[in-house]
Design a protein that fits this description.
Blueprint: E1 5-15, H1 17-30, E2 35-36, E3 43-47, E4 50-56, E5 64-71, H2 74-83, E6 87-88, E7 101-105, E8 111-116
Parallel strand pairs: 1-4, 5-8
Antiparallel strand pairs: 1-5, 2-3, 3-4, 6-7, 7-8
Length: 121
C-alpha cells in the first residue's frame, strides 16, 4: 500500500542573520500579516491557510524556502520515497528522537519536512 501525502500548513523561510530583522519587518509591518503568538523565539505569521515561519539561520548566506508534506505512515513514506530515488537529508536539522518525520530534498533542492500525522485523513 502506498502512503498518502498532502501539503502541510507550515512553510519555513530560513534567513541569514543579516537579513532576518528586515524580513520579519517586511511580513509584519509592510505586508501586515497577523503574527502567530506563543511560539517565541520563533516568529510566525498567518499566511492564508498556512503558517509562514521566519527562522534565523546563522550558517546560511542566502534565504531558503522549506515546505512541509504530511503523510499518514512515516515508514511507508520513507520506503516509497527511497524507491523513487528521493534524497533523504536528515542531517540538515535535528527533529528530535520522538518526532515522527524526516527531511528530503526535491530535485530542485527544495527541502521538505515529511511529517507523520495520525488521523490526518
Amino acid at each position: 500500500m502506498s502512503p498518502n501525502f498532502s501539503g502541510g500548513r507550515n512553510i519555513a523561510l530560513k534567513v541569514p542573520p543579516h537579513q532576518y530583522d528586515a524580513t520579519v519587518r517586511f511580513y509584519r509591518d509592510v505586508i501586515g500579516l497577523p503574527q502567530v503568538e506563543g511560539h517565541e523565539p520563533s516568529v510566525g505569521f498567518v499566511f492564508g491557510g498556512c503558517q509562514l515561519w521566519i527562522d534565523r539561520a546563522p550558517a546560511m548566506s542566502q534565504a531558503e524556502l522549506w515546505l512541509e508534506i504530511v503523510t499518514d505512515d512515516k515508514q511507508a513514506a520513507a520506503s516509497h520515497l527511497r524507491q523513487a530515488g528521493v534524497v533523504r537529508c536528515d542531517e540538515i536539522e535535528s527533529l528530535g528522537e520522538d518526532f515522527k518525520g524526516f527531511w528530503v530534498s526535491s530535485p530542485a533542492s527544495i527541502i521538505h519536512l515529511v511529517d507523520e500525522r495520525s488521523g490526518a485523513w
